[in-house]
Amino acid sequence: MFRTLNIRQAPYLSWQSIRVKMMLGLFMIVIPLVAFLIYSNVYAIHTVRTQVAESSKDLLSLYRSQVDARLQEADNYLNGLMLEPELSDYNFYTEPDERLFVKQRINNNLSNSILRYSVLDGLFVYLPADNDFLYSFQTRSTFIDRMYLKDYIVSDVSKSESLQRQHMKNWYVQRSGDQTYLIRFFVMPNASVVGAWINMNAFKTPLELLGIGEKGAALLVDDRGNALVNQSFIRDKGVQIKLDEASYYLTGEPDRYLTVGERSHEGDFSLYAFIPEEKILQQLPTLRAISFILPFASILILLLGLVLLRKTLLIPLNRLLKAMNRIQQGNLDTQIKQFPTSIEFLTVNDTFNNMMEQIKNLRINVYEEQLNKQKAELQHLQLQIKPHFYINTLNLLHTLARTKQMKLLEELSLYLIRYFRYMFQSNLSFVTLRDELQHVRNYLRIQELRFPGQLIHEIKAPDFLLNTPVPPLVIQTFVENAVKHAITLDDPVYLYIDLEMKEEPQEGILIQIRDTGPGFQEKIIRLIEKEERIVDEEGEHIGIRNLKQRLRILYHGQGEITLRNAGPHGAVIDITLPFEPENKANYNSGGTA
pTM higher than 0.70 for the full model? Predict the structure, then answer.
Protein backbone atom coordinates (compact mmCIF):
# COMPACT_ATOMS: atom_id res chain seq x y z
CA MET A 1 0.00 0.00 0.00
CA PHE A 2 1.19 3.52 -0.79
CA ARG A 3 1.51 5.88 2.13
CA THR A 4 -0.57 9.05 2.22
CA LEU A 5 1.21 11.91 0.47
CA ASN A 6 2.05 14.95 2.53
CA ILE A 7 1.37 17.68 -0.02
CA ARG A 8 1.08 21.35 0.76
CA GLN A 9 -2.53 22.40 0.62
CA ALA A 10 -3.39 25.46 -1.50
CA PRO A 11 -6.26 26.57 -3.70
CA TYR A 12 -6.28 24.80 -7.08
CA LEU A 13 -6.32 28.12 -8.95
CA SER A 14 -3.93 30.37 -7.08
CA TRP A 15 -1.14 32.70 -8.06
CA GLN A 16 1.37 29.92 -7.39
CA SER A 17 -0.36 27.54 -9.88
CA ILE A 18 1.48 26.96 -13.12
CA ARG A 19 -1.84 26.89 -14.94
CA VAL A 20 -2.78 30.40 -13.79
CA LYS A 21 0.64 31.78 -14.65
CA MET A 22 0.68 30.22 -18.10
CA MET A 23 -2.87 31.21 -18.96
CA LEU A 24 -2.52 34.81 -17.79
CA GLY A 25 0.76 35.30 -19.63
CA LEU A 26 -0.51 33.83 -22.87
CA PHE A 27 -3.85 35.67 -22.70
CA MET A 28 -2.18 39.03 -22.18
CA ILE A 29 0.10 38.54 -25.20
CA VAL A 30 -1.88 36.45 -27.63
CA ILE A 31 -5.51 37.60 -27.32
CA PRO A 32 -5.04 41.11 -28.78
CA LEU A 33 -2.96 39.71 -31.63
CA VAL A 34 -5.44 36.91 -32.36
CA ALA A 35 -8.40 39.31 -32.29
CA PHE A 36 -6.70 41.61 -34.77
CA LEU A 37 -5.75 38.73 -37.06
CA ILE A 38 -9.28 37.31 -37.00
CA TYR A 39 -10.86 40.67 -37.82
CA SER A 40 -8.35 41.38 -40.57
CA ASN A 41 -8.71 37.96 -42.13
CA VAL A 42 -12.52 37.94 -42.04
CA TYR A 43 -12.74 41.41 -43.57
CA ALA A 44 -10.06 40.72 -46.17
CA ILE A 45 -11.56 37.38 -47.18
CA HIS A 46 -15.03 38.92 -47.53
CA THR A 47 -13.62 41.75 -49.66
CA VAL A 48 -11.65 39.42 -51.91
CA ARG A 49 -14.59 37.04 -52.29
CA THR A 50 -16.77 39.92 -53.44
CA GLN A 51 -14.14 41.18 -55.87
CA VAL A 52 -13.44 37.73 -57.29
CA ALA A 53 -17.16 37.01 -57.57
CA GLU A 54 -17.80 40.26 -59.46
CA SER A 55 -14.82 39.70 -61.74
CA SER A 56 -15.80 36.10 -62.44
CA LYS A 57 -19.41 37.06 -63.01
CA ASP A 58 -18.37 39.73 -65.52
CA LEU A 59 -16.17 37.24 -67.34
CA LEU A 60 -18.94 34.66 -67.29
CA SER A 61 -21.44 37.24 -68.53
CA LEU A 62 -19.10 38.14 -71.39
CA TYR A 63 -18.76 34.52 -72.42
CA ARG A 64 -22.54 34.01 -72.11
CA SER A 65 -23.12 37.07 -74.33
CA GLN A 66 -20.79 35.62 -76.93
CA VAL A 67 -22.62 32.29 -76.86
CA ASP A 68 -26.02 34.02 -77.04
CA ALA A 69 -24.82 36.15 -79.97
CA ARG A 70 -23.77 33.05 -81.90
CA LEU A 71 -27.04 31.34 -81.11
CA GLN A 72 -28.91 34.45 -82.27
CA GLU A 73 -26.95 34.42 -85.52
CA ALA A 74 -28.00 30.81 -86.02
CA ASP A 75 -31.63 31.81 -85.33
CA ASN A 76 -31.42 34.56 -87.94
CA TYR A 77 -30.04 32.11 -90.46
CA LEU A 78 -32.84 29.61 -89.78
CA ASN A 79 -35.47 32.36 -90.11
CA GLY A 80 -33.93 33.41 -93.42
CA LEU A 81 -33.79 29.80 -94.59
CA MET A 82 -37.53 29.43 -94.06
CA LEU A 83 -38.10 32.37 -96.44
CA GLU A 84 -36.15 30.72 -99.26
CA PRO A 85 -38.54 29.92 -102.18
CA GLU A 86 -37.15 26.39 -102.53
CA LEU A 87 -38.27 25.59 -99.00
CA SER A 88 -41.44 27.68 -98.55
CA ASP A 89 -42.86 26.58 -101.93
CA TYR A 90 -41.55 23.03 -101.80
CA ASN A 91 -45.02 21.42 -101.74
CA PHE A 92 -45.90 23.20 -105.00
CA TYR A 93 -43.22 21.31 -106.90
CA THR A 94 -44.97 18.24 -108.27
CA GLU A 95 -42.45 16.73 -110.64
CA PRO A 96 -40.00 14.28 -109.08
CA ASP A 97 -37.03 15.64 -111.04
CA GLU A 98 -37.93 19.15 -110.04
CA ARG A 99 -38.14 18.19 -106.36
CA LEU A 100 -34.78 16.43 -106.63
CA PHE A 101 -33.11 19.62 -107.90
CA VAL A 102 -34.79 21.67 -105.14
CA LYS A 103 -33.51 19.31 -102.46
CA GLN A 104 -30.05 19.51 -103.98
CA ARG A 105 -30.10 23.30 -103.72
CA ILE A 106 -31.33 23.14 -100.11
CA ASN A 107 -28.57 20.66 -99.27
CA ASN A 108 -25.94 22.91 -100.91
CA ASN A 109 -27.25 25.85 -98.91
CA LEU A 110 -26.86 23.88 -95.66
CA SER A 111 -23.35 22.67 -96.59
CA ASN A 112 -22.17 26.20 -97.39
CA SER A 113 -23.75 27.71 -94.28
CA ILE A 114 -22.40 25.26 -91.70
CA LEU A 115 -18.89 26.58 -92.33
CA ARG A 116 -19.95 30.08 -91.20
CA TYR A 117 -21.38 28.91 -87.86
CA SER A 118 -18.55 27.16 -86.03
CA VAL A 119 -20.54 26.98 -82.78
CA LEU A 120 -23.08 24.64 -84.42
CA ASP A 121 -22.53 20.91 -84.80
CA GLY A 122 -25.10 20.61 -87.56
CA LEU A 123 -28.00 22.11 -89.57
CA PHE A 124 -31.00 20.11 -90.78
CA VAL A 125 -34.19 20.35 -92.86
CA TYR A 126 -36.89 17.72 -92.64
CA LEU A 127 -39.33 17.47 -95.59
CA PRO A 128 -42.27 15.39 -94.43
CA ALA A 129 -43.82 15.42 -97.90
CA ASP A 130 -41.05 13.10 -99.14
CA ASN A 131 -39.91 11.95 -95.66
CA ASP A 132 -36.43 13.30 -96.48
CA PHE A 133 -33.99 14.49 -93.79
CA LEU A 134 -31.34 16.85 -95.21
CA TYR A 135 -28.43 17.92 -93.01
CA SER A 136 -24.88 19.24 -92.94
CA PHE A 137 -22.45 18.92 -90.03
CA GLN A 138 -19.04 19.83 -88.63
CA THR A 139 -16.20 17.31 -88.68
CA ARG A 140 -16.39 16.96 -84.88
CA SER A 141 -19.96 15.64 -85.14
CA THR A 142 -20.25 11.87 -84.67
CA PHE A 143 -22.38 9.44 -86.61
CA ILE A 144 -24.27 8.58 -83.41
CA ASP A 145 -25.17 12.27 -82.94
CA ARG A 146 -26.50 12.57 -86.48
CA MET A 147 -28.54 9.38 -86.34
CA TYR A 148 -30.06 10.34 -83.00
CA LEU A 149 -31.01 13.85 -84.21
CA LYS A 150 -32.55 12.45 -87.37
CA ASP A 151 -34.63 9.90 -85.46
CA TYR A 152 -35.63 12.49 -82.84
CA ILE A 153 -36.82 15.10 -85.42
CA VAL A 154 -38.54 12.62 -87.74
CA SER A 155 -40.18 10.42 -85.09
CA ASP A 156 -40.89 12.88 -82.24
CA VAL A 157 -40.79 16.55 -83.18
CA SER A 158 -42.58 16.39 -86.54
CA LYS A 159 -45.41 14.25 -85.11
CA SER A 160 -45.98 15.92 -81.72
CA GLU A 161 -47.74 19.30 -81.60
CA SER A 162 -47.26 19.52 -77.82
CA LEU A 163 -43.50 19.05 -78.27
CA GLN A 164 -43.50 21.76 -80.92
CA ARG A 165 -45.38 24.23 -78.70
CA GLN A 166 -43.11 23.46 -75.73
CA HIS A 167 -39.71 23.83 -77.41
CA MET A 168 -40.10 25.96 -80.55
CA LYS A 169 -39.65 29.22 -78.60
CA ASN A 170 -35.90 28.98 -77.99
CA TRP A 171 -32.88 26.68 -77.74
CA TYR A 172 -33.56 23.80 -75.35
CA VAL A 173 -31.63 20.90 -73.79
CA GLN A 174 -32.23 17.33 -74.93
CA ARG A 175 -30.51 14.29 -73.36
CA SER A 176 -29.72 10.94 -74.99
CA GLY A 177 -27.87 8.50 -72.76
CA ASP A 178 -24.59 10.12 -71.73
CA GLN A 179 -24.85 12.77 -74.49
CA THR A 180 -26.54 16.16 -74.13
CA TYR A 181 -27.64 18.36 -77.02
CA LEU A 182 -28.78 21.97 -77.46
CA ILE A 183 -31.50 21.96 -80.16
CA ARG A 184 -33.31 24.73 -82.05
CA PHE A 185 -36.07 24.08 -84.59
CA PHE A 186 -38.90 25.85 -86.44
CA VAL A 187 -41.98 24.23 -87.96
CA MET A 188 -43.09 25.86 -91.23
CA PRO A 189 -46.70 26.15 -92.43
CA ASN A 190 -46.06 23.34 -94.91
CA ALA A 191 -45.01 21.13 -91.91
CA SER A 192 -41.34 21.20 -92.87
CA VAL A 193 -38.93 21.40 -89.91
CA VAL A 194 -35.72 23.43 -90.03
CA GLY A 195 -33.21 23.61 -87.18
CA ALA A 196 -29.74 23.15 -85.76
CA TRP A 197 -28.06 21.22 -82.96
CA ILE A 198 -25.00 21.50 -80.71
CA ASN A 199 -23.40 18.72 -78.69
CA MET A 200 -22.83 20.30 -75.26
CA ASN A 201 -19.34 18.79 -75.14
CA ALA A 202 -18.38 21.45 -77.70
CA PHE A 203 -18.62 24.04 -74.88
CA LYS A 204 -16.16 22.14 -72.70
CA THR A 205 -12.90 23.54 -74.07
CA PRO A 206 -13.95 27.23 -74.12
CA LEU A 207 -15.26 26.92 -70.57
CA GLU A 208 -11.88 25.64 -69.39
CA LEU A 209 -10.29 28.89 -70.59
CA LEU A 210 -12.15 31.11 -68.12
CA GLY A 211 -9.18 31.20 -65.69
CA ILE A 212 -10.68 29.33 -62.74
CA GLY A 213 -7.61 27.20 -61.96
CA GLU A 214 -6.89 23.51 -62.27
CA LYS A 215 -9.06 22.55 -59.30
CA GLY A 216 -12.03 24.72 -60.33
CA ALA A 217 -14.67 24.03 -62.96
CA ALA A 218 -17.03 25.86 -65.31
CA LEU A 219 -20.28 24.02 -66.06
CA LEU A 220 -23.32 24.24 -68.28
CA VAL A 221 -26.52 23.73 -66.28
CA ASP A 222 -30.06 23.14 -67.49
CA ASP A 223 -33.15 24.97 -66.19
CA ARG A 224 -33.62 22.32 -63.44
CA GLY A 225 -30.11 22.70 -62.02
CA ASN A 226 -28.57 19.58 -63.57
CA ALA A 227 -25.01 19.75 -64.92
CA LEU A 228 -24.83 19.14 -68.67
CA VAL A 229 -21.05 18.54 -68.81
CA ASN A 230 -18.48 17.41 -66.26
CA GLN A 231 -21.07 15.80 -63.97
CA SER A 232 -18.27 14.02 -62.10
CA PHE A 233 -17.17 17.37 -60.60
CA ILE A 234 -20.59 17.82 -58.93
CA ARG A 235 -20.50 14.30 -57.56
CA ASP A 236 -16.88 14.22 -56.36
CA LYS A 237 -16.69 17.71 -54.84
CA GLY A 238 -20.11 17.75 -53.15
CA VAL A 239 -21.08 21.12 -54.65
CA GLN A 240 -24.66 22.36 -55.11
CA ILE A 241 -26.17 24.34 -57.97
CA LYS A 242 -28.55 27.09 -56.78
CA LEU A 243 -30.46 28.63 -59.66
CA ASP A 244 -32.03 31.49 -57.66
CA GLU A 245 -28.83 32.99 -56.21
CA ALA A 246 -28.45 36.56 -57.50
CA SER A 247 -24.82 37.17 -56.49
CA TYR A 248 -22.47 34.41 -55.32
CA TYR A 249 -22.47 31.61 -52.76
CA LEU A 250 -20.08 29.09 -51.22
CA THR A 251 -20.54 25.35 -51.62
CA GLY A 252 -18.58 22.08 -51.59
CA GLU A 253 -17.34 19.54 -49.05
CA PRO A 254 -14.59 19.31 -47.87
CA ASP A 255 -13.11 21.86 -50.31
CA ARG A 256 -15.08 25.10 -50.60
CA TYR A 257 -15.86 26.81 -53.91
CA LEU A 258 -17.05 30.33 -54.64
CA THR A 259 -19.85 29.95 -57.19
CA VAL A 260 -21.36 32.45 -59.66
CA GLY A 261 -23.83 31.85 -62.47
CA GLU A 262 -25.23 33.48 -65.61
CA ARG A 263 -28.46 32.43 -67.34
CA SER A 264 -28.59 32.37 -71.14
CA HIS A 265 -31.09 34.70 -72.85
CA GLU A 266 -31.40 32.44 -75.88
CA GLY A 267 -31.74 28.96 -74.38
CA ASP A 268 -32.82 26.93 -71.39
CA PHE A 269 -29.36 26.72 -69.84
CA SER A 270 -26.98 28.64 -67.58
CA LEU A 271 -23.24 28.99 -67.16
CA TYR A 272 -21.72 28.40 -63.69
CA ALA A 273 -18.14 28.91 -62.50
CA PHE A 274 -16.73 27.21 -59.37
CA ILE A 275 -13.57 28.94 -58.10
CA PRO A 276 -11.59 27.18 -55.30
CA GLU A 277 -11.26 29.26 -52.16
CA GLU A 278 -7.56 28.43 -51.96
CA LYS A 279 -7.09 30.14 -55.34
CA ILE A 280 -8.88 33.22 -53.97
CA LEU A 281 -6.69 33.37 -50.85
CA GLN A 282 -3.56 33.17 -52.97
CA GLN A 283 -4.56 36.52 -54.44
CA LEU A 284 -5.08 38.18 -51.06
CA PRO A 285 -2.37 40.85 -50.49
CA THR A 286 -3.35 41.46 -46.86
CA LEU A 287 -2.85 37.84 -45.95
CA ARG A 288 0.51 37.86 -47.70
CA ALA A 289 1.62 40.82 -45.62
CA ILE A 290 0.38 39.16 -42.46
CA SER A 291 2.18 35.96 -43.44
CA PHE A 292 5.40 37.98 -43.76
CA ILE A 293 5.00 39.79 -40.42
CA LEU A 294 3.68 36.83 -38.47
CA PRO A 295 7.02 34.95 -38.17
CA PHE A 296 8.70 37.98 -36.55
CA ALA A 297 5.77 38.45 -34.21
CA SER A 298 5.91 34.74 -33.39
CA ILE A 299 9.61 35.00 -32.49
CA LEU A 300 8.86 37.87 -30.11
CA ILE A 301 6.00 35.95 -28.52
CA LEU A 302 8.22 32.89 -28.26
CA LEU A 303 10.96 34.83 -26.44
CA LEU A 304 8.47 36.24 -23.94
CA GLY A 305 6.94 32.81 -23.48
CA LEU A 306 10.33 31.18 -22.92
CA VAL A 307 11.18 33.61 -20.13
CA LEU A 308 7.95 32.70 -18.41
CA LEU A 309 8.33 28.99 -19.12
CA ARG A 310 11.91 28.87 -17.82
CA LYS A 311 10.92 30.13 -14.40
CA THR A 312 7.66 28.23 -13.96
CA LEU A 313 8.25 25.04 -15.93
CA LEU A 314 11.76 24.41 -17.29
CA ILE A 315 13.77 24.73 -14.05
CA PRO A 316 11.48 22.35 -12.08
CA LEU A 317 11.47 19.93 -15.01
CA ASN A 318 15.26 20.01 -15.12
CA ARG A 319 15.39 18.93 -11.47
CA LEU A 320 13.04 16.08 -12.28
CA LEU A 321 15.08 14.99 -15.32
CA LYS A 322 18.31 14.93 -13.29
CA ALA A 323 16.64 12.61 -10.80
CA MET A 324 15.46 10.37 -13.66
CA ASN A 325 19.00 10.17 -15.04
CA ARG A 326 20.34 9.06 -11.68
CA ILE A 327 17.71 6.33 -11.58
CA GLN A 328 18.67 5.24 -15.11
CA GLN A 329 22.26 4.85 -13.89
CA GLY A 330 21.07 2.42 -11.20
CA ASN A 331 20.77 4.71 -8.16
CA LEU A 332 17.36 3.66 -6.84
CA ASP A 333 17.76 5.69 -3.63
CA THR A 334 17.32 8.96 -5.51
CA GLN A 335 15.08 11.63 -3.92
CA ILE A 336 14.09 15.08 -5.18
CA LYS A 337 14.79 17.90 -2.72
CA GLN A 338 12.01 20.36 -1.98
CA PHE A 339 12.22 23.79 -3.64
CA PRO A 340 9.75 26.68 -3.79
CA THR A 341 7.77 25.98 -6.97
CA SER A 342 4.27 25.59 -8.34
CA ILE A 343 1.65 23.36 -6.72
CA GLU A 344 1.75 20.91 -9.59
CA PHE A 345 5.49 20.29 -9.25
CA LEU A 346 5.17 19.96 -5.46
CA THR A 347 2.70 17.15 -6.13
CA VAL A 348 4.97 15.53 -8.72
CA ASN A 349 8.04 15.70 -6.46
CA ASP A 350 6.26 14.19 -3.45
CA THR A 351 4.71 11.48 -5.62
CA PHE A 352 8.07 10.69 -7.21
CA ASN A 353 9.80 10.33 -3.82
CA ASN A 354 7.03 8.08 -2.58
CA MET A 355 7.13 6.00 -5.77
CA MET A 356 10.85 5.29 -5.40
CA GLU A 357 10.20 3.90 -1.92
CA GLN A 358 7.65 1.50 -3.36
CA ILE A 359 9.85 0.17 -6.19
CA LYS A 360 11.74 -2.14 -3.86
CA ASN A 361 8.48 -3.84 -2.90
CA LEU A 362 7.35 -4.02 -6.52
CA ARG A 363 10.55 -5.81 -7.55
CA ILE A 364 9.55 -8.75 -5.34
CA ASN A 365 6.19 -8.92 -7.15
CA VAL A 366 8.00 -8.97 -10.50
CA TYR A 367 10.04 -12.00 -9.45
CA GLU A 368 6.85 -13.78 -8.44
CA GLU A 369 5.29 -13.00 -11.83
CA GLN A 370 8.31 -14.46 -13.60
CA LEU A 371 7.96 -17.69 -11.62
CA ASN A 372 4.27 -17.86 -12.53
CA LYS A 373 5.15 -17.36 -16.19
CA GLN A 374 7.61 -20.27 -16.09
CA LYS A 375 4.92 -22.45 -14.54
CA ALA A 376 2.48 -21.42 -17.27
CA GLU A 377 5.01 -22.33 -19.97
CA LEU A 378 5.47 -25.74 -18.38
CA GLN A 379 1.71 -26.28 -18.38
CA HIS A 380 1.65 -25.24 -22.02
CA LEU A 381 4.22 -27.92 -22.88
CA GLN A 382 2.22 -30.53 -21.02
CA LEU A 383 -0.90 -29.62 -22.98
CA GLN A 384 0.87 -30.24 -26.30
CA ILE A 385 1.09 -34.03 -25.75
CA LYS A 386 -2.46 -35.31 -26.28
CA PRO A 387 -3.22 -38.39 -24.11
CA HIS A 388 -5.28 -40.11 -26.81
CA PHE A 389 -2.49 -39.71 -29.38
CA TYR A 390 0.10 -41.05 -26.94
CA ILE A 391 -2.04 -44.09 -26.02
CA ASN A 392 -2.96 -44.85 -29.65
CA THR A 393 0.67 -44.79 -30.79
CA LEU A 394 1.72 -47.09 -27.92
CA ASN A 395 -1.10 -49.43 -28.86
CA LEU A 396 0.09 -49.40 -32.48
CA LEU A 397 3.65 -50.17 -31.35
CA HIS A 398 2.34 -53.08 -29.33
CA THR A 399 0.34 -54.38 -32.30
CA LEU A 400 3.33 -54.18 -34.66
CA ALA A 401 5.53 -55.97 -32.09
CA ARG A 402 3.01 -58.79 -31.67
CA THR A 403 2.63 -59.25 -35.43
CA LYS A 404 6.44 -59.00 -35.81
CA GLN A 405 6.29 -56.27 -38.45
CA MET A 406 9.75 -55.12 -37.55
CA LYS A 407 10.31 -52.67 -40.42
CA LEU A 408 7.08 -50.81 -39.68
CA LEU A 409 7.88 -50.97 -35.97
CA GLU A 410 11.30 -49.48 -36.61
CA GLU A 411 9.89 -46.74 -38.86
CA LEU A 412 7.13 -45.85 -36.40
CA SER A 413 9.59 -45.68 -33.51
CA LEU A 414 11.85 -43.34 -35.47
CA TYR A 415 8.98 -40.97 -36.30
CA LEU A 416 7.76 -41.03 -32.70
CA ILE A 417 11.24 -40.11 -31.48
CA ARG A 418 11.34 -37.17 -33.89
CA TYR A 419 7.80 -36.18 -32.94
CA PHE A 420 8.41 -36.10 -29.17
CA ARG A 421 11.83 -34.49 -29.55
CA TYR A 422 10.16 -31.59 -31.36
CA MET A 423 7.36 -31.38 -28.80
CA PHE A 424 9.75 -31.17 -25.86
CA GLN A 425 11.65 -28.24 -27.42
CA SER A 426 8.51 -26.29 -28.40
CA ASN A 427 9.02 -23.83 -25.54
CA LEU A 428 10.92 -21.79 -28.13
CA SER A 429 9.00 -18.75 -29.33
CA PHE A 430 9.97 -19.40 -32.97
CA VAL A 431 11.26 -22.28 -35.10
CA THR A 432 12.14 -22.41 -38.80
CA LEU A 433 9.38 -23.21 -41.24
CA ARG A 434 11.49 -26.17 -42.42
CA ASP A 435 11.43 -27.73 -38.92
CA GLU A 436 7.71 -27.09 -38.50
CA LEU A 437 6.90 -28.77 -41.84
CA GLN A 438 9.18 -31.72 -41.02
CA HIS A 439 7.33 -32.12 -37.74
CA VAL A 440 4.03 -32.13 -39.63
CA ARG A 441 5.38 -34.81 -42.00
CA ASN A 442 6.46 -36.93 -39.00
CA TYR A 443 2.98 -36.62 -37.51
CA LEU A 444 1.23 -37.44 -40.80
CA ARG A 445 3.45 -40.46 -41.37
CA ILE A 446 2.48 -41.78 -37.92
CA GLN A 447 -1.20 -41.33 -38.81
CA GLU A 448 -0.69 -43.06 -42.17
CA LEU A 449 0.71 -46.06 -40.31
CA ARG A 450 -2.32 -45.99 -38.01
CA PHE A 451 -4.83 -45.65 -40.87
CA PRO A 452 -3.35 -47.34 -43.95
CA GLY A 453 -4.88 -45.99 -47.16
CA GLN A 454 -7.19 -43.59 -45.31
CA LEU A 455 -4.96 -40.49 -45.30
CA ILE A 456 -3.32 -38.92 -48.37
CA HIS A 457 -1.42 -35.67 -47.94
CA GLU A 458 0.49 -33.18 -50.07
CA ILE A 459 2.72 -30.29 -48.85
CA LYS A 460 3.91 -27.48 -51.14
CA ALA A 461 6.31 -24.80 -49.89
CA PRO A 462 8.81 -22.64 -51.82
CA ASP A 463 12.44 -23.22 -50.83
CA PHE A 464 13.09 -19.52 -50.15
CA LEU A 465 10.54 -19.59 -47.30
CA LEU A 466 11.95 -22.57 -45.42
CA ASN A 467 14.29 -20.53 -43.19
CA THR A 468 11.51 -18.14 -42.16
CA PRO A 469 10.80 -18.17 -38.38
CA VAL A 470 7.27 -19.20 -37.36
CA PRO A 471 5.72 -20.06 -33.99
CA PRO A 472 6.01 -23.79 -33.20
CA LEU A 473 2.94 -25.99 -33.78
CA VAL A 474 1.22 -23.25 -35.83
CA ILE A 475 0.58 -25.75 -38.64
CA GLN A 476 0.59 -28.99 -36.68
CA THR A 477 -2.30 -27.85 -34.43
CA PHE A 478 -4.69 -27.58 -37.41
CA VAL A 479 -3.32 -30.71 -39.10
CA GLU A 480 -3.98 -32.70 -35.94
CA ASN A 481 -7.49 -31.22 -35.73
CA ALA A 482 -8.15 -32.19 -39.36
CA VAL A 483 -6.93 -35.77 -38.83
CA LYS A 484 -9.01 -36.12 -35.67
CA HIS A 485 -12.31 -34.97 -37.20
CA ALA A 486 -11.95 -35.86 -40.90
CA ILE A 487 -10.67 -39.45 -40.98
CA THR A 488 -13.31 -42.19 -41.13
CA LEU A 489 -13.12 -45.81 -42.22
CA ASP A 490 -15.40 -45.20 -45.22
CA ASP A 491 -13.49 -42.99 -47.66
CA PRO A 492 -9.88 -41.81 -47.76
CA VAL A 493 -9.23 -38.22 -46.65
CA TYR A 494 -7.04 -35.87 -48.70
CA LEU A 495 -5.06 -33.25 -46.84
CA TYR A 496 -3.32 -30.36 -48.67
CA ILE A 497 -0.90 -27.84 -47.15
CA ASP A 498 0.09 -24.94 -49.44
CA LEU A 499 2.46 -22.10 -48.52
CA GLU A 500 3.07 -19.01 -50.63
CA MET A 501 4.37 -15.44 -50.41
CA LYS A 502 1.77 -12.74 -49.89
CA GLU A 503 2.50 -9.12 -50.86
CA GLU A 504 -0.82 -7.34 -50.25
CA PRO A 505 -1.86 -5.57 -48.08
CA GLN A 506 1.56 -6.22 -46.48
CA GLU A 507 4.37 -8.70 -47.03
CA GLY A 508 3.71 -12.02 -45.31
CA ILE A 509 3.23 -15.79 -45.55
CA LEU A 510 -0.11 -17.39 -46.44
CA ILE A 511 -0.51 -20.96 -45.12
CA GLN A 512 -3.60 -22.81 -46.35
CA ILE A 513 -4.67 -26.18 -44.92
CA ARG A 514 -7.47 -28.03 -46.74
CA ASP A 515 -9.09 -31.41 -46.18
CA THR A 516 -11.95 -33.40 -47.71
CA GLY A 517 -13.61 -34.25 -44.42
CA PRO A 518 -17.06 -33.17 -43.17
CA GLY A 519 -15.89 -29.60 -42.40
CA PHE A 520 -16.58 -27.38 -39.40
CA GLN A 521 -19.88 -26.87 -37.66
CA GLU A 522 -21.03 -23.27 -38.12
CA LYS A 523 -21.35 -22.93 -34.36
CA ILE A 524 -17.69 -23.97 -33.89
CA ILE A 525 -16.52 -21.39 -36.49
CA ARG A 526 -18.39 -18.61 -34.67
CA LEU A 527 -16.97 -19.63 -31.28
CA ILE A 528 -13.40 -19.76 -32.66
CA GLU A 529 -13.77 -16.33 -34.31
CA LYS A 530 -14.91 -14.87 -30.99
CA GLU A 531 -12.20 -16.82 -29.08
CA GLU A 532 -14.82 -18.29 -26.77
CA ARG A 533 -14.61 -21.62 -24.95
CA ILE A 534 -15.53 -24.78 -26.89
CA VAL A 535 -16.86 -27.52 -24.64
CA ASP A 536 -18.50 -30.76 -25.80
CA GLU A 537 -18.82 -34.35 -24.63
CA GLU A 538 -15.06 -34.81 -25.07
CA GLY A 539 -14.24 -31.88 -22.77
CA GLU A 540 -12.87 -28.41 -23.41
CA HIS A 541 -10.94 -27.73 -26.65
CA ILE A 542 -8.26 -25.07 -26.20
CA GLY A 543 -5.67 -25.78 -28.93
CA ILE A 544 -6.90 -23.38 -31.66
CA ARG A 545 -7.94 -20.77 -29.11
CA ASN A 546 -4.49 -20.83 -27.49
CA LEU A 547 -2.81 -20.62 -30.90
CA LYS A 548 -4.80 -17.50 -31.87
CA GLN A 549 -3.82 -15.85 -28.59
CA ARG A 550 -0.14 -16.75 -29.16
CA LEU A 551 -0.17 -15.23 -32.65
CA ARG A 552 -1.78 -12.03 -31.35
CA ILE A 553 0.96 -11.66 -28.71
CA LEU A 554 3.91 -12.66 -30.92
CA TYR A 555 2.88 -10.53 -33.93
CA HIS A 556 1.20 -7.69 -32.06
CA GLY A 557 -2.20 -8.40 -33.58
CA GLN A 558 -0.97 -8.77 -37.20
CA GLY A 559 -1.29 -12.57 -37.41
CA GLU A 560 -4.65 -13.82 -38.70
CA ILE A 561 -6.47 -17.18 -38.77
CA THR A 562 -9.60 -17.72 -40.89
CA LEU A 563 -11.74 -20.88 -40.85
CA ARG A 564 -14.37 -21.75 -43.44
CA ASN A 565 -16.06 -24.71 -45.10
CA ALA A 566 -15.33 -25.68 -48.70
CA GLY A 567 -17.89 -26.91 -51.19
CA PRO A 568 -19.26 -29.51 -51.43
CA HIS A 569 -17.51 -30.64 -48.24
CA GLY A 570 -14.26 -30.19 -46.39
CA ALA A 571 -12.61 -27.56 -44.23
CA VAL A 572 -10.22 -24.74 -45.18
CA ILE A 573 -7.92 -22.90 -42.76
CA ASP A 574 -6.03 -19.76 -43.91
CA ILE A 575 -3.15 -18.63 -41.67
CA THR A 576 -1.55 -15.26 -42.49
CA LEU A 577 1.74 -14.41 -40.75
CA PRO A 578 3.93 -11.30 -41.20
CA PHE A 579 7.07 -12.07 -43.18
CA GLU A 580 10.01 -11.67 -40.78
CA PRO A 581 12.84 -13.81 -42.21
CA GLU A 582 15.62 -14.83 -39.85
CA ASN A 583 15.28 -11.96 -37.39
CA LYS A 584 14.06 -13.75 -34.29
CA ALA A 585 16.53 -14.36 -31.49
CA ASN A 586 14.67 -17.20 -29.81
CA TYR A 587 14.18 -19.84 -32.48
CA ASN A 588 15.95 -22.93 -33.81
CA SER A 589 17.50 -21.87 -37.13
CA GLY A 590 18.86 -25.27 -38.05
CA GLY A 591 18.49 -28.84 -36.90
CA THR A 592 16.02 -31.50 -37.91
CA ALA A 593 12.86 -32.21 -36.05
Answer: no
